[in-house]
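Title: Prediction job returns without error message
Component: structure pipeline
Severity: low
Priority: P3
Assignee: unassigned

Description:
Job completed but the reporter wants confirmation the result is attached to the right record. Sequence as submitted:
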Amino acid sequence: MTDYPIPSPQELMAEAVRVTGLTDFGPSDWFLQPLTIQVDSINSEARLNESGAAVQRGRLTGALVNRLRLFEAIRQHPEIAIWPVKVAGVLLGLSRSGTTMMHRLLNSVPGITAMKWWETHHPAPFENEAKGQPTERRAQAQALLDHMLATIPDLMSIHPMSLDHVDEEITVLDQSFMSTTPESFLWIPSYAKWLETADHQPAYDELVLWLRYLQWQDPSREGAVWMLKTPNHIAATSAALKAFPDATFIMTHRDPVRAIPSYCSMVSSLYRMSSDHVDMKAIGRHWQHRWSSALRQLYDLRAGDPAVNARFLDLQYDEIVADPLAQVRKVYARANLDFTPEEEAIMRQSLKDNARDNRPPHQYALENFGLSEEGLKEAFAFYRQKIGKVVGPAPTELC
């Protein structure tokens, strides 16, 4: 149990109602189950410190506030629910396998769009906000980013970010209380275990609704196609495939012997934001199991349906490092997009501006997490065989 428990779901909902003056959390109360399981797990397992309890209370209340504002906007503007969006590509892969680099490169051109970091935390306009003027939302997102950087000094070497960097839609999925975000910030194994076999479809259906809402808010996105990205799609592939039926699923592959310890290093830093009790070896055991289990489910899905498998484009991490624009051309070809000379020039400049050499190195050791090369090889043997991977010298570290 924690010395600093967060309130019950009912109390959190009441707080969100007080903040907004709204009462409609959506046409169904299905979200109460994941919210309740998450709150119970946090209070019984996460061992929050005082700051962590405040952050988690704010995160959960903020998600409920966003839900209220989303469904109020739809009540006032029913067209939001059917606003046209086109998702051309969905990036997925083990964390630390180059997905962030590819995502930001693809989204560096005007015709492709994704959520910006500040939008992922505040996707719904505040009360009395003028359309197209999210000044207060940006200010609050900056305050959160400043807190994260102050708490985790090496964060920029692990996962560089700014208000206007494109980022993962996983934070918006978290408005439905179903994503791997909480277990990446907190030690909540019972919630994670429940999430492994839960039905993610309602959360992904709501994610589509959020995309509609974000596109409705921002006229500059008109005509652009979305390129999404989060490792969460590995853990909920079936739901993602149904939510984005016309998208190409772009899967990046990196040897888990490299990717898993790198991810554990990032997670251990995030845990320290909310708890003074961080068990590094427990983190290693958890994520070795979590990602190997998710990958087995994904490959079972691909093996069981040739039509599903045909929707995937597989990219190797080493090839992304060696020639990222060659991988971009593969994405464009599969997604039926026209790769113009102007877009190539923009991307080449983006690569120069965001070179890995511009950041301090991300340092970690698998032994810190109770992991070994042999153990990781065994846990991920099926996956390593599929991607034809053998362990060699660690290449340049990308996100």
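Comment from assignee: result matches the submitted record. The chain has a mean pLDDT of 91.
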